[in-house]
């Protein structure tokens, strides 16, 4: 008797709603259900739009040069962010001037929107400091190499902000909110789940910004979740939305609106920015081992910088502007190369500094041992 073939039951997948204001071909349009996000974009000036493009191009040029410097032995490691400029620059400028930012380790674009000097990042990756910027001055906290820890720190800071009465007062110079950046891989960490829970039950003024770049090193997003990441917070009571992370305007509008709402006392929110990591996870990684080049080419066609350039040209921005940006990029690359090659190693005795806030006898003993050891070894020309 011939076996009857079994019919598989296929559940149709509903289309995932996503905020997109700028299509891959550079066409601008505001869907009816996203009108309030479009209204935010209408407040931007031509100078604001140029600033977005200038910084996206600047961080792309910086990224390319940093990869070259690492390959030449000038950096211990580099973490590329090529392809994610739209998500980072747009979101970075959507954060308020009093807000605090807790990054992961790839947020170079966000860093420059809040005054962090690019050489500070390179010095850290070279190993001559542990983060050379002042988190209190820039409100951009130090990079978190341990996956997900920055999210806990952000929620704790946001809870403290609320306890201090700096949320929902209506005073724009007083109120502040917190934003934490993470990748898609970090959402699988227990730290992130705990953060969502604590943020929800404490109504903390925090926005979780997930850069879903499709790959957690070699793990594809399809293999690690069965629901869109913007829904990850629902079970904890944190609402969310998905945006086109390669659309700098959508990234700016979504971040600004939900940071404003968090600052006014409306609680936490989660933004999933759908984007792509064009390069390697780090310079220690070979992505050709786990993904097809056809996939990379597909996402290159959605490049956030090329898309925004088409849009700006349609707004009447002339060739002079783009030539100026390209020239500035070349000058930046030359400058950071010269500065990097000129870097010197810090004194070895620095390992004893800032271990404790007050003098400590054990640290003093170790410092004296090092001096005696170096004296015993003598000097070498």
Layout of helices and strands, plus pairs?
Elements: H1 35-41, H2 46-71, H3 85-94, E1 100-102, H4 108-112, H5 118-126, H6 135-138, H7 149-163, E2 178-183, H8 190-201, E3 206-212, E4 215-216, E5 219-220, E6 240-244, H9 248-263, E7 269-274, H10 293-300, H11 304-314, H12 319-341, H13 361-377
Description:
This protein has 381 residues and is an alpha/beta fold. The chain folds into two domains: 32-341, Rossmann fold, CATH 3.40.50.970; 348-377. It is 43% helix and 8% strand. The protein contains 13 helices and seven strands. It has helices at residues 35-41, 46-71, 85-94, 108-112, 118-126, 135-138, 149-163, 190-201, 248-263, 293-300, 304-314, 319-341, 361-377, and strands at residues 100-102, 178-183, 206-212, 215-216, 219-220, 240-244, 269-274. The strands form two sheets. Strands 1-2-3-7-6 form a five-stranded parallel beta sheet, with helices on both faces. The chain has a two-stranded antiparallel sheet with strand order 4-5. β4 and β5 (219-220) form a beta hairpin. It is globular and about 75 Å long.
Shape, per Cα inertia axes: globular
**Which sheet architecture does the biggest sheet show?**
5 strands, parallel
Spatial separation of the terminal alpha carbons: 90 Å
User: Strand content of the residues, in percent?
Assistant: 5-15%
Number of helices: 13
Query: How do the helices and strands follow one another from N- to C-terminus?
Result: HHHEHHHHEHEEEEHEHHHH
Counting DSSP E segments of at least 2 residues, the number of strands comes to 7
- The CATH topology of the largest domain: Rossmann fold
The chain-level structural class is alpha/beta
Helix content: 40-55%
Please mark out the parts with pLDDT under 50 across 5 or more consecutive residues, or reply none.
1-11
CATH architectural group of the largest domain: 3-Layer(aba) Sandwich
| Average pLDDT taken over every residue | 94
Overall domain count: 2
CATH structural class of the largest domain:
Alpha Beta
The CATH homologous superfamily of the largest domain corresponds to Thiamin diphosphate (ThDP)-binding fold, Pyr/PP domains
Query: What value does the Rg take, in angstroms?
Result: 23 Å
Biggest sheet: strand arrangement: 1-2-3-7-6
């Amino acid at each position: 008797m011939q076996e009857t073939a079994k019919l598989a039951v296929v559940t149709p997948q509903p289309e995932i709603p996503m905020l997109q204001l700028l299509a891959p071909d550079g066409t601008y349009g505001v869907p009816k259900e996203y009108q309030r996000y479009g209204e935010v974009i209408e407040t931007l000036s031509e100078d604001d739009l140029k600033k977005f493009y200038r910084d996206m191009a600047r961080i792309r040029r910086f990224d390319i040069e940093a990869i070259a410097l690492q390959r030449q032995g000038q950096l211990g490691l580099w973490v590329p962010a090529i392809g994610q400029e739209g998500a980072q620059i747009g979101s970075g400028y959507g954060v308020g001037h009093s807000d605090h930012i807790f990054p992961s380790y790839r947020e170079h674009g966000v860093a420059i929107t809040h005054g962090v000097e690019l050489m500070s990042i390179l010095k850290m990756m070279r190993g001559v400091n542990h983060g050379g910027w002042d988190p209190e001055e820039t409100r951009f906290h130090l990079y978190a190499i341990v996956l997900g820890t920055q999210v806990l720190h952000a929620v704790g800071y946001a809870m403290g902000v609320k306890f201090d009465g700096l949320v929902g007062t209506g005073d724009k110079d007083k109120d502040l909110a917190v934003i934490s950046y993470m990748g898609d891989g970090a959402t699988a960490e227990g730290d992130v789940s705990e953060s969502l829970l604590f943020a929800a039950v404490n109504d903390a003024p925090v926005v979780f910004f997930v850069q879903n770049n499709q790959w957690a090193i070699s793990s594809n997003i399809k293999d690690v979740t069965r629901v869109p990441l913007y829904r990850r917070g629902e079970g904890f009571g944190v609402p969310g939305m998905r945006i086109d992370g390669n659309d700098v305007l959508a990234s700016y509008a979504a971040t600004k609106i939900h940071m404003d709402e968090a600052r006014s006392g409306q609680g936490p929110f989660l933004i999933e920015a759908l984007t792509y990591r064009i390069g390697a996870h780090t310079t220690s990684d070979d992505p050709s081992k786990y993904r097809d080049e056809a996939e990379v080419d597909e996402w290159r066609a959605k490049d956030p910088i090329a898309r925004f350039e088409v849009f700006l040209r349609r707004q009447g921005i002339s060739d002079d502007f783009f030539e100026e940006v390209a020239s500035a990029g070349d000058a930046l690359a030359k400058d950071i190369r010269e500065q990097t090659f000129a870097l010197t190693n810090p004194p070895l005795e620095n390992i004893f500094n800032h271990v404790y806030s007050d003098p400590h006898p054990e640290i003093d003993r170790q410092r004296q041992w090092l001096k005696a050891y170096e004296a015993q070894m003598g000097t070498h020309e």
